[in-house]
Specification:
Elements: E1 2-11, E2 14-24, E3 28-33, H1 40-46, E4 57-65, E5 68-69, H2 77-83, E6 84-87, H3 98-108, H4 114-127, H5 131-134, H6 147-159, E7 165-169, H7 177-190, E8 195-199, H8 203-209, E9 212-217, E10 220-226, H9 227-232, H10 237-243
Parallel strand pairs: 3-8, 3-9, 6-7, 7-8
Antiparallel strand pairs: 1-2, 1-4, 4-5, 9-10
This protein binds adenosine-5'-triphosphate (ATP).
Adenosine-5'-triphosphate is lined by residues 11, 14, 16, 34, 36-42, 54.
GO molecular function: ATP binding; ATP hydrolysis activity; phosphate transmembrane transporter activity
Protein name: Phosphate ABC transporter ATP-binding protein
Keywords: ATP-binding, Nucleotide-binding, Phosphate transport, Transport
Length: 247
């Protein structure tokens, strides 16, 4: 599905991600963990070329999505970011209605048929587990919702584009425990249809919901494997120390 081979990411001369190689299989959740500044977000955002927007950022090595190099000149970056969507740490709804937020990408792609848009809104909001809460106020502004609801609308906006892969950068760190639980339960369902790669600082969250975990330190991928193995029988001392809270 997605393969990274000897990928480095530089900000000018500083190598924030160092020669990382790993593969993501289809479906399921992979958690990216590691100390602050170890390069998790940089790594994540390079997977759909969001780092193209950062001045001075440069990627070397290869990233292949469905067998094709995503940094190839011929790649349509807008299409790539639809196939590999990104959910940010802070909910970032557009200053429009809930409905217009969800259909934003579809309309940008030229879809105008109201029946198709209506259907996409309901399906995406249902998948994001927020339909029942907002179905009677789809024309209200999305930024008038609670933080947890806003984040689920943002997830619905990504889901409306039917992405194969969803990148998430600490999607619940700005939310209360109940909103966090709602989003975790939703992820547990949507991971059956989507490949989810999620940065989290919350080790309990990683152990609760992820199938695989990758531990990063100082730009290096230290260890990657089934979450149970990483948490219960880590092979590397650095992983063991981090999991035990010693870093
Ligand atoms: N736009 C940028 N320009 C220059 N350096 C950057 C930029 N963004 C990140 N860095 C540096 O790259 C390194 C990795 O940062 P990154 O945000 O990827 O780490 P992280 O593991 O996600 O951290 P955190 O958990 O605190 O979010 C850090 O040393 C950071 O200071």
């Amino acid at each position: 599905m997605l393969t990274v081979d000897k990928m480095s990411v530089f900000y000018d001369d500083f190598e924030a991600v160092k020669q990382v190689s790993m593969s993501f299989e289809e479906k399921g959740i992979t958690a990216l963990i590691g100390p602050s500044g170890c390069g998790k977000s940089t790594f994540l955002k390079s997977l759909n070329r969001m780092n193209d927007l950062v001045p001075g950022a440069r990627v070397t090595g290869a990233i292949e999505y469905q067998g094709k190099d995503i940094y190839d000149e011929a790649v349509d970056v807008t299409q790539l970011r639809q196939d590999i969507g990104l959910v940010f740490q802070q909910p970032n709804p557009f200053p429009f209605s809930i409905y217009e937020n969800v259909v934003y990408g579809l309309k940008a792609n030229g879809i105008k048929d109201k029946a198709i848009l209506d259907e996409a809104v309901e399906t995406s909001l249902r998948k994001a587990a927020i339909w029942d809460e907002v179905k009677d106020k789809l024309n209200s502004r999305a930024d008038s919702l609670s933080g947890g609801q806003q984040q689920r609308v943002c997830i619905a906006r990504v889901l409306a584009m039917n992405p194969k892969v969803i990148l998430m950068d600490e999607p619940t760190s700005a939310l209360d425990p109940i909103s966090t639980k709602e989003i975790e339960e939703m992820l547990d369902t949507i991971k059956r249809e989507h490949t989810i790669i999620m940065v989290t600082h919350n080790l309990q969250q990683a152990s609760r919901i992820s199938d695989k975990t990758a531990f990063f330190s100082k730009g290096h991928l230290i260890e990657f494997g089934p979450t149970k193995d990483i948490f219960l029988t880590p092979q590397e001392k650095a992983t063991e120390n981090y999991i035990a809270g010693k870093l």
